[in-house]
Amino acid sequence: MPELPEVETVRTGLAPAMEGQVIVQADVNRPDLRWPFPEQMSERLTGAEILRLRRRSKYILADLSTDETLLIHLGMSGRMTVSGHALGDFYHDHPAPQKHDHVVFHMSNDARITFNDARRFGAMDLMPTAGQDDHWLLKDIGPEPLGNDFNEAHLIAKLKGKNTPIKTALLDQRIVAGLGNIYVCEVLFRAGIHPARKAGRISANRVASMVPIIRDVLSEAIESGGSSLRDYRQADGELGYFQHGFKTYDRDGETCVTPDCGKKIKRIVQSGRSSFFCPQCQR
Ligand SMILES: [Zn+2]
Question: According to its UniProt record, which protein family does this protein belong to (predicted)?
């Protein structure tokens, strides 16, 4: 499932092919993904110039010359492919249409952007650019973890008195935007905090220590996504998936990476999702 760094990598890969370009043709091959597409989506996109491609949490937002903004969400299995335009050092010819190519944008620079989503948990919507903060998917989202509004004071205030496990609190998008399961596991390992510890029982100092760790974990992942783009050999121009070296995620039963720790990484299930942690290093 794409998380914030993967979505940022997709945005970075799409931007040179889409920004400043006009959507000459928009193929919308079915009426819906997770939710119905907006009415007349193809007509509303055709002829629109993409002024800017942004990211908010795990959503890609394309501001259009029509004063509308296109929201793109990759969901669980959504994939974006660029063809007809150089991606990093590699140029990908237009591929033959695939099953599950649900939306295809033909750009004025001959780039083709294909949204393929086998499981259809992804989404696209159109909203007035001026009213995007009121969009139902965006209005309750907390500050961006890499932005200035996310800071020590904010996190301390949000976690104060909270009876939920810290793992669950960090996954709450109202507290911080875009943090998902994988990166929360990594953050808690680096912070030395047990995922089941009650959020409100963690000292202010330790809560504050998580802020730079959250920024570092995400920035490092975005950086490795960026280098994957610069060296984009993948045959079809698909964006956004790259190799990570996680210290706990999906490593249950393996030895903790902390020198001299020697304990095995454990897995527990919290709110229906796996948490991986070291019982020695995380308290
Ligand atoms: Zn350990």
Answer: Belongs to the FPG family.
198 is in an annotated binding site: no
Residues marked active site are found at 2-3, 58, 273
In the reported structure, the alpha carbon of residue 186 is separated from the centroid of ligand 1 by a whole-number distance in angstroms of 13
Look up the pTM and report it. Answer: 0.91
Domains of the chain: 4-134 (3.20.190.10), 152-277 (1.10.8.50)
pLDDT grade, residue 233 (50/70/90)? low
Q: How do residues 131-175 score in pLDDT, each as one tens digit?
A: 998 999 999 999 999 999 999 999 999 999 999 999 999 999 999
* Rounded distance from Cα 191 to ligand 1 centre (Å): 12
266 a known binding residue? no
Angstrom distance (rounded) from CA 229 to CA 12: 8
What is the 258 CA–ligand 1 centroid distance (Å)? 5
Q: What percent of the chain has pLDDT over 70?
A: 96
What residue spans of the chain are helical by DSSP H? 4-18, 41-45, 152-159, 166-171, 181-191, 204-230
Q: Find out whether 158 is annotated in a ligand binding site.
A: no
pLDDT score of 210 more than 60: yes
